[in-house]
Structures are given as C-alpha cells and as structure tokens.
TrEMBL record:
Protein name: Uncharacterized protein
Organism taxonomic ancestry: Archaea, Methanobacteriati, Methanobacteriota, Stenosarchaea group, Halobacteria
Renumbered residue ranges of the record's region Disordered: 194-214, 311-360
Compositional bias annotation for Basic residues: 337-350
Organism: Halarchaeum rubridurum
InterPro entries on file: DUF5787
Amino acid sequence: MAGAEFGFELRVCAWAERHWEPADPDSRVLVARQLGTRRRRWDTVIVEADPAGLSARAAFGADELDADLLDVVRHAPADWTYYRDALPDPGYPWRYVREAIHRASARGVLDERKRANRIEIRRVAPYPDWVRRVVAVENKPDLDASAARALAAQLERDVALGLADEVWVATRADATRALVTEMPNAAGVLTVGAGDDAADDATDEGRDPEAGERDALAVDVAWHPRTLDPDATGVRVTDRGDPTAFEYVDPAEKRETRARLAERAYGRGWRAYADTMRPDCRAFDLRAAEEGDVPYCHAKGREQTAAECSGSCPDFSPEPPGWRQRGWPIEGGPGKTVKRLLDRRRRRRRPGLDERDGDA
C-alpha cells in the first residue's frame, strides 16, 4: 500500500463503502472524506441512512444543500405561503433568507412566486429525515507512541462532544500497539493491512476500472468503540490548559450540525478529489487498488497526493487539443472521462437520482 496518507484514506473510504456493517442491517451507507465543522475535520465520515428517506432525498438533486438552503427547504410549506409566515425567524436580516429562496428556486428544490408584491414559497417535496447514524474515522497509517498521544487528545474531544455516534481510528496493523495503549477506550481502532499493491493496467477511456477483480483490503477491528449519544448535551473543550475550559453544546445544535454534515456527505462523497486535482494532465491516471481506484502519476511513477497534483506541478502537461475534442458534441479527453466515471460511481450510492433527472 502506498505510504501517503492520501492513498491510505482513499482505500479506507472504498473499503467502508463496500463492507461497512451498519447498526440497522437495512441501512444504506454513504461515505465521504474531509468533512467537519469549523473546529474539527474528519478524514472519513460514514452516514448510515434510512433507505426510503435516502431515496426521497433525491428529489432535491445530486448537489448538497448548504445551511441556508437546508433551512428554507426543510420548512417550506405544502401550499403557497408568504415566506415570512412559512419560515421561522432566522435571527438575522430577512434579505439573506430571500437570497436563499432565490437560489433554491433556481436549483429547482423550491417553488417560488410573487403575488401582490409578496414572495410566496411552496415545497417541491417534503425533506426527509434520512440520517440514522454518523460515524467518524480518523485515518493515521503511520503512528508511533508520541503521535498516538497527540491523536488521543483530539479523540477525547470528539467523544466528549458526541457529535458522531461512533469515533474510530484506522491505522496500519503494525501501529496497533501504540494506538490501543494511548487511545480513549470509547474510540474504536481499525487495523488495515495491505492487499496486492501491484497496480493494474491503466484505465482506458470508457472502461470502468472497478468492473474487474481486485484484492480485498484486510481490515480488522482491534478495539470496539463505545456508542455515543448525539441526542445528549455535549461538551466542547475550548482550552486544554489548567484548568480545562469547556462549554456545553445543546442537542439541537448537534442535530443541526449532523444534518449539515450529512448533506455535504451526500453531495461530495469520497471521490471528489478529481475536482481539485488535474485529471486533464497527460500523466494522470486511475489505477485499481484494494477495493477501489486511486490516482496515479506516470511522471512521478507513483501515487501522487492531492496537494502535489495541481497546475503548478513541474510535471504538469495538459492534454493536447485533439484528446479534448473526442466525442460529440465535445465530450473531452481522458480527464473528462475520469470525472464522469467517478461521478457515475458516486451516484450509484444515491438511489432515485437517475429517475429524477435521467442522467446515467
């Protein structure tokens, strides 16, 4: 397995998407990466979703609903109503609410009209309660005892806050001893062993690289976590000095944060790395690894990180115009194909989207 934490993270996300066992056996599993709040960001977020609710969520499209849109959509009435009568007082100027209404209407997730110089709104569908559980995973492939102690302090904060239902650490099997001895006992530990590191043939345009066989990632539970209570008041540590400073977090605030996290997970998934990397580079490729596909750079001869793969990379070489003009009317070259492929695989985990917009 590649040494970079980025590649390790993608492998854990791919494994979780295929093999995570939710608390309710009928739950659907959505996986996203690099999500969190202003104070905390998790490497991997697993959302266990109600199947019917997840299908109903598709009525609002494939893109995430940000906090402002979510507030409008959830409170939109079934019949035409003056927006100030329909929506709760936001606690800030109503002009910002009007802007959110206009954006929601433009996206087709809310109906809007003007009657007697008043803005009226109507929902396109009830917004479902589709989230059952949220699981947070910190990916640390290489840990010694010192690094484990530093990570343990952060996990203690996660446990005290109780925003997620479970908190885990994923690491290589040879780092397990340091983790188990240093981690808070409420956090779980996953040990990840490498499968076959040999890269398969490069992805050809139009071929689904996950269609073929690949070795499974060896993941075991070294320590089971304690189930946390997101509906209880949480404790947010603001300063670990002497004495420790903290504040209480109301369950309602935690529910709002979880809903926003779930929306971002729905919209982004874990394959969105192609949006910030440069798949339009000649050297960019996807290669089959354990459970999923990872970016590979032919110029470097190895898996690159998301930070390395940019227009400022000295090895960056854009696709020639002839590649980009393939297809009709102009579908683009291999870079566009990579993005379409990753988007298609993301959409497979979100039932109902194809029925809504006809996109394959």
